Give the backbone structure.
Amino acid sequence: MKFTASQIAEILEGKIVGDPEAEVSELAKIEEGAKGALTFLSNPKYNSYIYTTKASITIVNEDFKPEQPIHTTLIKVKDAYKAFSKLLEYYNQVKLNKSGIEQPSFISEDVKYGEDIYLGAFSYVGKKVEIGNNVKIYPNVYLGDNVKIGDNVILFSGVKIYSDCTVGNNCVIHSGVIVGADGFGFSPEEDGKYAKVPQIGNVIIEDDVEIGAGTTIDRATLGSTIIRKGVKLDNQIQIAHNVEIGEHTAIAAQTGIAGSTKIGKNCLIGGQVGIAGHLYIGDRVRIQAQSGIGRNLKDGETLQGSPAIGYNDYYKSYIHFKNLPKIVDTIEQLRKKNENNG
């Protein structure tokens, strides 16, 4: 896809300084920009690159004034970073704008779907599935019976959504995500074996949720596992049965949340965090990477460590831990001195 400086300026409501017919077909960092590339400059740290970049078009802040000759066409806007982000979003929408039903694919007879949908090849849509408007379903997606998908949803290749689960509006679910697999429910028996506990609940994903590649969200034993509005999940996260994650909470990769734990609103949870089951995590909680959580947390707590303790306490303790060899040496010297004096 090619765009001219005039077209980009119209999208961004910017002012052109240079050639309005300059064309671009790719995006690049300013230090790596080549002919035909679009880039941006917002951080003064990179100012020197605007005089050497070979990018055809550069988005800059409206107060930018070059101190040397430049060879790139400028588009001046109020905020270059935000403008470039807006352009990335626009570019992504154009790139992903597919429609129609590809073959081979399987759609049950009683499926209901809205306008302007895309269904990629080798996808399977089960009985009584409901799909909203402007939904993009990429190849090799599986939708089980009674699944409901809202409007403006993107399901990338390889997504599997088991029966009876619900996805709200404006959600993005990346490749390899599995929604609604059985929770890890087994009951020990006298002979040492395990009896499987049937998992008959579902998963509810509310509006504006994004789920990273390879993440798994288990169905509830009874009731629902719930991902509330605006939640952002990174790649390779495990969410167990009957977990509830509050609105606008963000969780980084490789975190595991055990069954029936409730997480509040606007929490930030770092990578490789482990959270035990049947806990309550309050609102606005901050959990640093690689922490282990084994107790309930109050609103606004910030923790680190395994088992996790208060963030400030952790760093005070860590200083002592680093100095432990010196402390041991000092104690040993005092012990020897005391023995000699004795």
